[in-house]
Amino acid sequence: MTIHYRRAMSLVSELTEEIRQFAVERDWEQFHSPRNLLLALCGEAGELAAELQWVAEDRVNEHLSESNGRERFEAEVADVAIYLLRLCDVTQVDLGAAIRRKLVKNALKYPSEKVRGSAARYSSADPES
Amino acid sequence: MTIHYRRAMSLVSELTEEIRQFAVERDWEQFHSPRNLLLALCGEAGELAAELQWVAEDRVNEHLSESNGRERFEAEVADVAIYLLRLCDVTQVDLGAAIRRKLVKNALKYPSEKVRGSAARYSSADPES
Amino acid sequence: MTIHYRRAMSLVSELTEEIRQFAVERDWEQFHSPRNLLLALCGEAGELAAELQWVAEDRVNEHLSESNGRERFEAEVADVAIYLLRLCDVTQVDLGAAIRRKLVKNALKYPSEKVRGSAARYSSADPES
Amino acid sequence: MTIHYRRAMSLVSELTEEIRQFAVERDWEQFHSPRNLLLALCGEAGELAAELQWVAEDRVNEHLSESNGRERFEAEVADVAIYLLRLCDVTQVDLGAAIRRKLVKNALKYPSEKVRGSAARYSSADPES
Q1: Short-list A52, A78, A1, CA closest to B12
Q2: B90 touches chain A (CB under 8 A)
Q3: B41 pLDDT more than 70
Q4: Dist. CA A96–CA B11, nearest whole Å
Q5: Is the dihedral of CA A73, A76, A80, A82 positive or negative?
Q6: C-alpha angle A27/A32/A34, rounded to 5°?
Q7: Which one of B55, D40, D87, D95 has the lowest number of neighbouring Cβ atoms within 10 Å?
Q8: Residues 6 or more apart from A11 whose CB is under 8 A from it?
Q9: Is the pLDDT of residue A2 over 80?
């Protein structure tokens, strides 16, 4: 129950703090320059990509419902998040605020009434490009 | 002040919900398969990497203190996070819990008293590999 | 016809030389440290990934037969290759030899008679992991 | 000496053929769809990034002159190249020609007399963006 509560209430700031503590306890802050963390983030994004590289599109759900497949996937997702949060920490980016600013920007760029439900429009209206 | 409050209190679950709403309003959920989102995540990690690709190590802080450099960096960080949270949403990964499980696992693998403060040990003791 | 000849005969060493010349003529060698090039390579791999991020599996061939889709794809493939060859150049890696050494290593690791034609074995026998 | 000759003469087409043969002998062509290979490429680019993630800028040459560091680096470089060439093979991209087309395009975009030797111009004149 305590666990459930914490899960439901994961604050970005708390997770960031826990990740920082992990580094501090090992005196690993010295290695966490922005570019080092960026290379590490690319490394982990790559490992996550590798998890599904040979899994056919219609087999993904099945793969992720197998305990081994899910465990590996979640561990890689966590690794990407850990380095992303650590990068935000050392570069003083408020990630929650940055996400919300980007969503506002994207909403102006892609008004729902204009792009709604169209695959064709979506391709030319990549929300992140 | 409201904004400050929300920033300080960014819950992973709330951010996830806001990102999902953005997709729902545009009927873009149909494009958000795990592998599509994974390719998009790799794309955004790459764009983030590109932000610092020509910035010398000792120039990073200066670069990130310039308004243009910071704005671009934060937008790319946000893009990575948006796709990561969206990926967790569609694959039903509780990201906060996954991060904490990984930190526990890493703590067992790299006891602070053994790896502390050693660059040499760190290299061979990559916390994420 | 000359062009056809050169295409059929693209030597890794010649391409590497042409890419180096491009940098030399612009005095851009100073920016091409291994880690800079590595971040740039990740950036381009990400842009390549983005080319197919929203293209459904069974639509890829069609997408790549459209002139715009193909042109963009080939340009991104080239960008990845350019930075990879440039990285090999500055780190003095003979790419052809490195590829052949890796194929020999992989052949020992995955004897064709053992792994042949089995999806299940392939998953657990990722040739590159 | 034969080896030296082959190294000096590595043709893109020959390497592509050798990589294809490796897949054919194992009946692995069925797994090599463009998007699968793209995820694999991102995975390998990430592993390559990881090789230098904790290596300080001024330690890179030393790291790559140590036999273990160099061997790992070359193996990862080869993995990226193998998947890139395999991707070109299945999508029928003539990589040498694509690289040369991109260099011509970049030369028009960044005339050497205009961008030469200027870090400031280089930043805003990223050859690949």
Answers
A1: A78
A2: no
A3: yes
A4: 8
A5: positive
A6: 165
A7: B55
A8: B9, B10, B11, B12
A9: no
Half-sphere exposure of C116 (CA within 13 A, CB side): 7
Kindly give the interhelix angle for D12-25 and C12-25, rounded to the nearest 10 degrees.
130
CA distance C79 to B89: 32
Domains of chain D plus CATH, in order, are 2-93 (1.10.287.1080), 94-129 (no CATH)
Q: pLDDT tens string for chain D (129 positions)?
A: 344 444 457 999 999 999 999 999 999 999 999 999 999 999 999 999 999 999 999 999 999 999 999 999 999 999 999 999 999 999 999 999 999 999 999 999 999 988 887 655 555 544 444
pLDDT of A3 strictly over 50: no
How many contacts (CB atoms, under 8 Å) link A and C?
Answer: 28
Tell me if D49 and A39 make a contact (CB, 8 A cut-off): yes
Q: Work out the angle at residue A78's Cα, subtended by the Cα atoms of residues A74 and A81, and round it to the nearest 5 degrees.
A: 140
What lies within 8 Å, CB to CB, of A25 at 6+ separation is B112, B116
* A41 contacts on B by Cβ (under 8 Å): 45, 48-49, 80
ipTM score of the complex?
0.89
Question: In this complex, which of A54, A122, A129 lies closest to C122 when CB atoms are compared?
Answer: A54
Residue that the structure tokens 């790291």 belong to: D63
